[in-house]
Automatic annotation (TrEMBL):
Keyword vocabulary terms for this entry: Glycoprotein, Glycosidase, Hydrolase, Signal
One Pfam family named in its UniProt record: Alpha-amylase
InterPro entries: GH, GH13_cat_dom, Glyco_hydro_b, O16G_dom_2
Catalytic activity: Hydrolysis of terminal, non-reducing (1->4)-linked alpha-D-glucose residues with release of alpha-D-glucose
Organism name: Ceratitis capitata (Mediterranean fruit fly)
Gene3D superfamilies noted in UniProt: Glycosidases, Golgi alpha-mannosidase II, Oligo-1,6-glucosidase, Domain 2
Name of the protein in its database record: alpha-glucosidase
Enzyme category, top tier: hydrolase
Signal sequence coordinates: 1-21
Gene: MAL2
Amino acid sequence: MMGKTIGLLLIAFALCQLSRGERDWWENGNFYQIYPRSFKDSNGDGIGDLIGILEKLDYVKDIGMNGVWLSPIFQSPMADFGYDISDYTKVQPEYGTSEDLLALIDKAHSLGLHLILDFVPNHTSDEHEWFQRSIANDSYYRDFYIWHDGVINATTGKRQPPSNWISQFRYSAWEWNEQRQQYYLHQFGVKQPDLNYRNPNVVEEMNNVLRYWLARGIDGFRIDAVPFLFEADIDPATGTYPDEPVIADTSSCPDPDDWCHLNHIYTNSLPEIFNIVYQWRKVVDEWKREHNTDTKVLLTEAYTSFENLMRMYGDGVHNGSHIPFNFEMMAELNNKSTASDYDYYVRHWLDNMPAGVYANWVLGNHDNPRLASRFGAQRADLMNIFLQTLPGIAVTYNGEEYGLEDGYVSWEESVDPQACNADPSTYLKYSRDPERTPFLWDNTKNAGFSTADRTWLPVGQSYETNNIEAQYAADNSHLKIFKTLTKLRKSEPAFTDGDYKSAVGDGWLAYARKASSGSPHIVIVNIGDSKVTLNFNELFDNISANLEVVTSSLQSGLANGQSVDASAFEAQPYNGYVLRVKSEE
Ligand code: GLC
C-alpha cells in the first residue's frame, strides 16, 4: 500500500474531563473475565477448576488486573455450562468444593484482587429443587416459574404453546411438562426454566443468594441476562400471552425458528427490569454499610438499547448497576468498521452517560468470537491498546491479553447448546465453543492446561511456540505490550484522570489524553490497511515536538522509549501506538 500524508478528512473533538480525587477500587478498574472450565485444570480431568484458578492468580495479578469475574461455578447439570444452576449456594463438584472457593477468595484478597461471581437470576436449571417443587404444585413454589395451560388450536383442535415466543437457543420458548400438565417458559434452553419475577418470594429468595455469597467475602456480581427477567403478562381478553410480531425485513433472519426472527416487544427489556436491578443494588449497598466492607459491585449483562443501558446505571432516584456492560463496540464494530465508527462509540458513551458514573468498555466475552479472530490477528494489539487507553473501566476476556484466537471445534466435538441445536452445516454460525477453548499456558501436553488425555473442548490452536510462557520469555510479545498498557493505565495521570480529545481520518483514530499532572499521551490506532503520516501539532494544538514510544503493536518496528517525529509520525496499517509527550528540555 502506498503511504500518504493525511490531509484532515474529519476532526472530531470530545472533551470529557473526569472528576479527580480518591478512587474507589472499581472506579478505574481493570476487570478480567475467567472462563473457569477452560482456564486451568488442577486435577487432570480435562476440565478447568477453582484450584487451577488459584494456582494462576499470581498471573492475573501480574498482568495488572484488579477485579476478576468468574463465569458460573455453581452446581449445575451443565446443559448450558453452568448458566443452568441447580443450587446457587453449592460449588459444582468438577470445579471443586466450597472450601476451594473460600481459599480462592482469600488468595485473591491477599493479592489485592477483588473476586466477582456470576449471578444467573433469570432462570434456574430444571433440576433445581424449586422447579421440581413447582412441577409438583407445592404451594410456595407453584408460581416460582411461568406456567400456562396452552391454547387449543381452532383448526386442529390440538393443544399448542400459549404464544409464538422463541427461545434464544431456537425453537419455541414453551415446553410441555407431563407431570404438571402445563407449559413452562424458557427464554434460553429447555433445561433453563424462567423464574417468575412477579412473585415477591422469588425476588427475596434471589436476594438471599446474593447475601449468602456476600457473607463469604465475595466482592460483587456479574448479573446474567438482565433483559429477560420479565415478559408481558397474560392478556385478560384472550387468557393467554400476546404473540410477538415477525421482524419487518426477514431477509436478515429468515429462519422462523431463530430468535432473531421475532421483534421481542413482549419478552425483552421490559421496563420492570430496572426496579429489580435497583433493588439488587440496594442489597449490596446495604451489605457494605452494615458490614463496613469494600464496595460490592454489580456488573450487568444486557444486550439492549443504549437508553436502557443508561437507565441501568440508575434513574436519578435509585442507583443501579455500577458497570452496565458497554457492548456497543462488541455488537457494532467488526473488521470492516471505519475509524469514525470507533470514535463514535467512544464519544457516544462518554458524552451521554449520566453524571457521577464511570464509563466501561467491553470488547470480548465467552459468547463472542475472540478479538484476534473478529478483527484479524494483526489487529490484536491494536484492540488492546484501544481498550486499555480509554477513560473508565476496562473488561478483558481471558486470552485476549496475549492475542489468543478462536479454536477450531468440529461438529463432533461441539458441546455448546447453541451449536447443538443447529446442524453440521450451520453450527459454526451459532457455536460459542471456539471462544471457549482452553488457555495456552506453555508448550507441554494440552498447552499446560490439563494433563488429561482428552480435554472438555479441544486445545484449539497451535501452542508449541505461542503460549504464555513463551510470551513471557520473548523480548517483546502481545502479553508484554498488554502489561505495559495496564501499568500505564493504573499509574499515569493521563490515563487515570485525563481528558479525551480525538481526531479521526481515513482509517485512523488518534486521541490525546491529558491530566493536570503527568505527561500528556497520544494514542493512535491505524485500523485501516494503509500507512498514514500524521502531524500531531496540527491535530492537537502544538502538543509538542518531543514524543517517545511507550508501547506499540508487536509488528510496529518501533522500540519502547524511541523518539518519534510529532509533525510526521508514520502509523503502519493495523498498528496501535501509545506515545508520551516528553517535557521540554
Ligand atoms: C448469558 C450468558 C450466556 C448464557 C445465557 C443464558 O447471555 O453470557 O453464556 O448462555 O446468558 O444464561
